[in-house]
Amino acid sequence: MPDYNQNYSRQSGGYQGSNTRGNDSGFRKEKATFDFNPWNEKIKTWVRNEIDKETISFADEFGGFIAGKAPNNKNEALTTSQIRIAFGELRKIQMNGFNEEKTSFLMLKAKLAYAVKRHDKIGLTEFYNLFSKAYNEVDTKNVEAGTKQFDNLLQIIEAVLAYHKYHGGKE
């Protein structure tokens, strides 16, 4: 099981006025953000080529993080319904065919960006960051390569969703 006290950087919320979020100092508690640095190149490889056992290790660590397992992030967790919205859209694209649903795929990044701003939760922001990294590796001009890469992206998201639930992701 991943150690949630490591591998996360800190983000300070800055001054928020007096007694913000129950903190008398007027400052938010620091929130952990996920450190993608050790994973960036691997995510590209997984999308471009294929997933492997290391993908599953990443999904376990990342799924726990977005479920709120990192220090000070319990109230910043991604909900199961938020992740399922994206996953459902990805499944629809897969069922109808990547080539036929290319526009829906392209728009999904914008829809997630809107959700990030609307909900303002670290878990959703980090999920968007993962999705963006994987999304940028999908070739939308070459149908054969793009379809394979899309399927790999879908498998990564599916593994993250499974581990999010395993680590106690809430509705």
From TrEMBL:
Pfam families: Csm2_III-A. Residues 1-23 have a biased composition (Polar residues). Keywords: Antiviral defense, RNA-binding. Residues 1-29 are annotated as: Disordered. The keyword RNA-binding applies. The keyword RNA-binding applies. InterPro entries: CRISPR-assoc_prot_Csm2_III-A. GO terms for molecular function: RNA binding. GO terms for biological process: defense response to virus. This subunit may be involved in monitoring complementarity of crRNA and target RNA. NCBIfam families: cas_TM1810_Csm2. Belongs to the CRISPR-associated Csm2 family. This is CRISPR system Cms protein Csm2. The lineage of its organism: Bacteria, Pseudomonadati, Bacteroidota, Chitinophagia, Chitinophagales. The gene is csm2.
